[in-house]
Amino acid sequence: MSKIxxxxxxxxxxxxxxxAKCVSCAQAIGGDIDVVVMGKExxxxxxxxxxxxxVGRVLAIDAEHLENPLAANWAPEVVSLAAEYSHVLGPSTTxxxxxxxxxxxxxxxxxxxxxxxxxxxxSFRRPIYAGNAIIDVSVPEGSVVVMTVRTASxxxxxxxxxxxxxxxxxxxxxxxxxxxxxxESAGGERPDLQSAxxxxxxGRALGSEENFEIIYRLADKLGAGVGASRAAxxxxxxxxxxxxxxxGKIISPDLYLAFGISGAIQHITGIKDAGxxxxxxxxxxxxxxxxxxxxxxxxxxxxxxxxxxxxx
Length: 312
Fold this sequence. Notes:
Layout: E1 3-7, H1 17-29, E2 32-39, H2 43-50, E3 57-62, H3 71-82, E4 87-91, H4 94-107, E5 111-115, E6 117-120, E7 123-128, E8 133-138, E9 145-149, E10 164-168, E11 198-202, H5 213-222, E12 225-228, H6 230-234, E13 255-259, H7 265-271, E14 276-281, E15 294-297, H8 300-311
Parallel strand pairs: 1-2, 1-4, 2-3, 3-10, 4-9, 5-9, 11-12, 11-13, 13-14, 14-15
Antiparallel strand pairs: 6-7, 7-8
């Protein structure tokens, strides 16, 4: 039987939804599921992890040098536990993409990325070529499977569990070659882009950083996260952590609103798992209309104010 370890993603107070999606993937593999929560003063996060359906144990490692998700500090802790497990899972988020390759390297195995479907305990499916093809990947038996979970492909498990919480001591010391300096975020109180149920995105058609404020205003009215196309990021309208697409973030909101985004293949890759896609573009031939559930040919600077008026 498989024994699976999931690395919890959190901000020190709240467990990221990606962890619950990793649990769903682990349930598809089958076996005993543990979650490791690393950080400082993590009682609340550990309790949230213990509430995830399917989790048997939560391993809480509370240490000063683990307070921030610095891969150089977290990876050795994960590897120190890995010998007990057949699988080590992390989300395919910014945090997971930073941490899990280091875990795999320290464990001396290859990493499997963006798992979207489980065939068996050692056989999985993942997208390639910007999602235009799906490949079956098998992992040799006998070695630990280190992989990231494509969170856009999995539903979050329920929060009705009652796992036990075990306190563990940190196995290592702070890394000498890396240190955490700080976090700068322009997102404010808006929902996290990768876990938001609703996302409003803007493209190069916005024309400037100042004009992008119209996207922020609509998102705030809807209680939505904010994204952007690569063209908008490259033009300097928004920071690159807002980029949606193959080279940005893969998301799966219930509702995705795209304003002034043409729909290049790399962008479509990031939104194809969205529940409902709404596109507004002046170009009636824009590729995004081919994937949109609702499309409107029009000027976003006229359409958005009308939507705001209807919202009140």
